[in-house]
Amino acid sequence: MTGRTKRDKQAGVIGTTIFHAVILILLMVLGLSSIPREEEGILVDFGDSPTGMGATEPVFNEPSGEQNTQPSAPPEPVSPPPATTPEASEESVNTQDFEEAPSISEEEKAKQEAEKKRLEEERKRQEEIERQKRIEEERQRQEELERQRRLEEERKRQEEMERKAQEARNNVTNAFSKTNGTGSSQGETGDSGNQGALSGEPGAGNYDGTGRGSRGTGFDLSGRSLNGALPKPEYDIQEEGIVVVEITVDRNGNVVSAEPILRGTTTQNSYLWRVARQAALKARFNSDPDAPAYQKGTITYHFNLN
User: Fold this and answer.
1) Is 28 contained in some domain?
2) Structural domain includes residue 9
3) 255 to 85, 133, 223, 234: CA distances (angstroms)
4) Mean predicted confidence (pLDDT) in 39-45
5) What's the pTM value of the predicted model, to 2 decimals?
6) Domain limits for position 139
7) How far is 241 from 123, CA to CA, in rounded Å?
8) Dihedral in degrees, nearest 10, Cα atoms 150, 155, 160, 161
9) Last residue of a domain, which of 136, 171, 206?
10) Range from 113-122, 193-202, 253-262, 265-274 carrying the lowest mean pLDDT
């Protein structure tokens, strides 16, 4: 029993030795081969100056105060954005398209077109109203200008009639104040002199009555006399009044124009005006080469009830 125990112990020592030897060999082979080789080169002292002398490295004093030996905290890791699923991306895109270009129904589009058409028609109607207003204003302006023109013509005509009347009054005054010394005479009595009436006008051709136009007919043409009787108008209406016709006579005694005038006329009957003018155009006066080329005068017609 003792011999057997002794052999077991020897076997255990031998096995242990062999095991450790194998381990040591493995460590030597594997461990030494993995040690990194040192880099080749020479060490250089950085120093603090490009100049210096001596073989002893100077000792540097540590700065006063405690040094912060704690390592800085590592930055917090940034979590990557959550991955979006294809369904979420598609939904987002669809929502964006709907907001940018909303669909319009046909009914709404028709309403917009109708409103646009109505506004355009209203604009055209307002333009037409403005155009008609301008046309009316221009018409009124033209009417006012025409009225002013007629008033001015009437004023000038009245001034011309007044001037002629003044000339006639001057001629009457001169006729009663002096004679022209030719020794001619006028009248129906057979004696020399100028027969007439104080209430008449020179050259009237009537020698009795109450004056110009009081009855029948009469004329006023300074220095001229009638050849024959004064033509009388022919009328067949029951109307009375006085029509004064302004005549223009040439040197041969012909009436070249005749127009009824307002001054002295007491009727506005167009028929009496027309027959008076026709009768005045038939009158003939004496020829006078020394008279003006065209001499103006008047013929007065009295229309009485038959």
Assistant:
1) no
2) no
3) 120, 52, 15, 18
4) 63
5) 0.33
6) 118-171
7) 62
8) 100
9) 171
10) 193-202
